[in-house]
């Protein structure tokens, strides 16, 4: 156990150092990596829900709501302060997560997925239709905010955003691991395997799922506001179902249910996309769909699973692959 | 709101509900038997619409009788349903029936992503508009309001035909009874020798054809744009969830409810048009989590 933990920690530290050093070697990657890590936060949110066996096709709504909250605060305060913008985005996404969460945690599987999709479609059309408020499909520009009162040039600001995002990612990844290991986090796995038994133990499945949902909304929101401040723009496109699908895709690509997988998936995805999307612009979704099918059918462990297979080492804690175990259980049931 | 506007909204709502019903009933039928929510259903709708429009354009270009566009609508639906439906069920879905619910959902979602691009590659991103069938049938005057015969007669008639036909099919024919048996109790049906593989395939093809028919019949009434499939899958899910998953007759009622609600919103509060289906669904689900006609599932301990 101790040996495995050390190996895991070592690997994580190495990855963080590598990412932190990347912009020093190649300037241009910092924005790309910032966006990738910000998306990774949203994917981490999806991952929490996947632990409970639920998938949301609408988490882009939190990503977008938070981005727009940042944009509005920036507009009202004439540029604004970075941390106020981020705080506003986070607050709005948490509040929205609670409001929608109270409703959707009553449902499971298909209903859960599609109700989230429905809510995100509503937000998307509000953002697009109320042109006079939200700028319609052109979106809203986000002027570069001050950082603790300092006005920064573009390059230093991008560095600030990059290291801030990286710092948040490290802290939150650690926090989410702790959360998943806690009884409340373990309850999520029980929601997936057998909810009724969980309730017989005296825990409320809805409550456990609601906590996870609000957390995942906050993570998606944080990712959204960080990414859109970095890009200086919030458009309704980021609330569209395609974006939600992208988060789910990355979560499965990285390895469903692992913290490391969320970020590994996000970095690989953004990296490949920035090169390949230019060549495959017309069939990008088709490529994503095909890869998604391939992963589900042939490599259910995702990138983390592949790495485990290659190194012959288990990179994550916990019991055997839950997907495989659940499959076997279901074969027996039917 | 004058009574004339209310009347107009009712006619709009009826025509719209008829189309939504065709798609939603296919979705609910597939769910009832396969226990999979087919997200790619929206693609069947969109591709059915595009193919119908293309056939219509080809008929006009070939100088054939414009009345041929009517059989072309049906032909488009059957082609999409049988070819795409068979392909997807045989090559993909049958391998995931034993996987987790989430993965099944993701598989159809992946198919949906692929088909969205296929559709964009084949038909491009520019809107298509092909309204020959609509114009051929002319208008009708109802209490001073002019309305197209196609929307007020053909669409509801086809929807009604599907509703009655489906009921008769499920209750009286052998294939229909087998489908009902699998819906009720899959394990028992398998035990007494029902070939579930074939039942799945037939159901999926019927469901896909219904979605494509909805699209084909919708094509003369609206311009076809990318993204129409995504809108339709969410809308028809709203209908199916409101009715209760697997409920055929309930889907008709829910489609009417949502169709009328939406068309009244168009005249009263246009900004809320897109919200109405979800508001209806949310209200119904708050009171009845299983939908209007759904039955609560047994809890497994």
Describe the structure.
The complex is a heterodimer of chains A (334) and B (301). Chain A has helices spanning 2-25, 29-51, 60-76, 82-104, 109-129, 131-134, 154-181, 183-193, 195-200, 205-231, 241-254, 259-279, 284-298, 302-311, 322-333, and strands at residues 140-141, 233-234. The two termini of chain A are 36 Å apart. By secondary structure, chain A is mainly alpha-helical. A two-stranded antiparallel ribbon of chain A has the order 1-2. In chain A, 77% of the residues lie in helices and 1% in strands. With 301 residues, chain B is an all-alpha fold. Chain B is 72% helix and 3% strand. Chain B has twelve helices and two strands; from the N terminus they run αααααββααααααα. Chain B has helices at 3-34, 41-61, 69-91, 101-123, 132-136, 149-172, 174-184, 186-191, 196-218, 228-243, 248-268, 276-287; strands at residues 139-142, 145-148. In chain B, helix 2 (41-61) runs parallel beside helix 4 (101-123). Chain B is globular. The model of chain B has no long low-confidence stretch (mean pLDDT 84).
What features would you highlight for this structure?
heterodimer; A: 334 residues; mainly alpha; ABC transporter involved in vitamin B12 uptake, BtuC; 2 strands; B: mainly alpha; 72% helix; 3% strand
CATH level 1 class label of chain A: Mainly Alpha
Annotation, overall tally of beta strands of chain B: 2
Radius of gyration of chain B: 19 Å
Strand content of chain B: under 5%
Mean pLDDT of chain B: 84
Q: Report the oligomer.
A: heterodimer
Strands of chain A, count: 2
Percent in helix of chain B = over 70%
What is the N-to-C succession of helices and strands of chain A? HHHHHHEHHHHEHHHHH
Draw up the topology in text:
The complex is a heterodimer of chains A (334) and B (301).
Chain A: H1 2-25, H2 29-51, H3 60-76, H4 82-104, H5 109-129, H6 131-134, E1 140-141, H7 154-181, H8 183-193, H9 195-200, H10 205-231, E2 233-234, H11 241-254, H12 259-279, H13 284-298, H14 302-311, H15 322-333
Antiparallel strand pairs in A: 1-2
Helix pairs in contact in A: 1-7, 2-7, 2-10, 2-11, 2-12, 3-4, 3-5, 3-10, 4-10, 7-8, 8-10, 11-12, 11-13, 11-14
Chain B: H1 3-34, H2 41-61, H3 69-91, H4 101-123, H5 132-136, E1 139-142, E2 145-148, H6 149-172, H7 174-184, H8 186-191, H9 196-218, H10 228-243, H11 248-268, H12 276-287
Helix pairs in contact in B: 1-6, 1-9, 1-10, 1-11, 2-3, 2-4, 2-9, 2-10, 3-9, 6-7, 7-9, 10-11, 10-12, 11-12
């Amino acid at each position: 156990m101790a040996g495995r933990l050390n190996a895991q920690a070592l690997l994580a530290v190495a990855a963080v150092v590598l990412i932190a050093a990347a912009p020093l070697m190649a300037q241009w990657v910092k924005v790309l990596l910032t966006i990738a890590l910000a998306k990774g936060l949203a994917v981490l949110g999806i991952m929490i829900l996947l632990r409970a066996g639920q998938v949301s096709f609408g988490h882009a709504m939190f990503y977008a709501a938070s981005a727009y909250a940042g944009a509005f605060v920036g507009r009202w305060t004439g540029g604004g302060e970075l941390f106020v913008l981020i705080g506003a985005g986070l607050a709005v996404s948490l509040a929205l997560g609670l409001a929608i969460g109270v409703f959707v945690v009553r449902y499971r599987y298909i209903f859960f997925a599609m109700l989230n999709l429905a809510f995100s479609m509503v937000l998307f059309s509000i953002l697009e239709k109320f042109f006079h408020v939200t700028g319609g499909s052109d979106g809203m520009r986000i002027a570069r905010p001050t950082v603790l009162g300092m006005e920064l040039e573009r390059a230093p600001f991008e560095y600030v955003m990059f290291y801030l995002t990286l710092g948040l990612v490290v802290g939150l990844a650690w926090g989410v691991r702790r959360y998943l290991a806690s009884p409340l986090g373990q309850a999520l796995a029980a929601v997936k395997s057998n909810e009724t038994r969980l309730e017989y133990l005296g825990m409320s499945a809805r409550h456990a799922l609601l906590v996870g949902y609000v957390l995942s909304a906050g993570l998606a929101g944080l990712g959204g506001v960080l990414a859109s401040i970095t890009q200086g723009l919030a458009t309704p496109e980021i609330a569209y179902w395609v974006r939600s699908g992208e988060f789910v895709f990355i979560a499965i690509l990285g390895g469903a249910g692992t913290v490391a997988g969320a970020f590994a998936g996000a970095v690989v995805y953004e990296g490949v996309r920035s090169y390949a999307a230019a060549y495959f612009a017309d069939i990008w979704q088709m490529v994503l769909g095909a890869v998604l099918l391939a992963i589900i059918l042939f490599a259910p462990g995702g990138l983390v699973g592949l790495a485990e297979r290659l190194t012959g080492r288990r990179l994550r804690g916990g019991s055997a692959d839950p997907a495989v175990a659940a499959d076997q259980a279901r074969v027996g049931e039917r | 709101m004058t009574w004339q506007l209310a009347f107009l909204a009712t006619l709009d709502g009826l025509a719209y509900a008829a189309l939504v019903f065709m798609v939603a009933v296919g979705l609910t039928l597939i769910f009832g038997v396969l226990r999979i929510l087919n997200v790619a259903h929206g693609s069947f709708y969109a591709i059915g619409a595009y193919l119908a429009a293309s056939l219509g354009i080809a008929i006009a270009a070939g100088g054939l009788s414009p009345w041929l566009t009517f059989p072309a609508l049906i032909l488009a639906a059957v082609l999409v349903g049988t070819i795409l439906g068979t392909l997807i069920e045989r090559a993909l879905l049958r391998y995931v029936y034993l996987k987790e619910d989430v993965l099944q959902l993701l598989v159809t979602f992946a198919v949906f992503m692929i088909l969205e691009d296929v559709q964009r590659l084949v038909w491009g991103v520019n809107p298509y508009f092909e309204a020959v069938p609509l114009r051929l049938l002319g208008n009708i005057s109802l209490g001073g309001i002019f309305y197209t015969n196609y929307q007020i007669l053909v669409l509801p008639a086809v929807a009604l035909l599907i509703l009655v036909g489906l009921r008769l099919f499920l209750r009286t024919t052998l294939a229909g009874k087998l489908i009902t048996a699998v819906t009720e109790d899959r394990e028992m049906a398998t035990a007494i020798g029902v070939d579930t593989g074939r039942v799945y395939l037939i159901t999926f093809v019927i469901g896909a054809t219904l979605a494509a028919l909805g699209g084909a019949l919708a094509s003369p009434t609206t311009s076809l744009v990318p993204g129409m499939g995504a809108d339709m899958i969410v809308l028809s899910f709203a209908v199916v969830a409101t009715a209760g998953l697997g409920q055929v007759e309930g889907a008709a009622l829910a489609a009417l409810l949502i169709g009328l609600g939406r068309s009244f919103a168009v005249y009263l509060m246009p900004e809320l048009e897109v919200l109405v289906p979800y508001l209806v669904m949310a209200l119904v689900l708050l009171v009845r989590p299983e939908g209007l006609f759904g039955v609560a599932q047994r809890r497994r301990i």
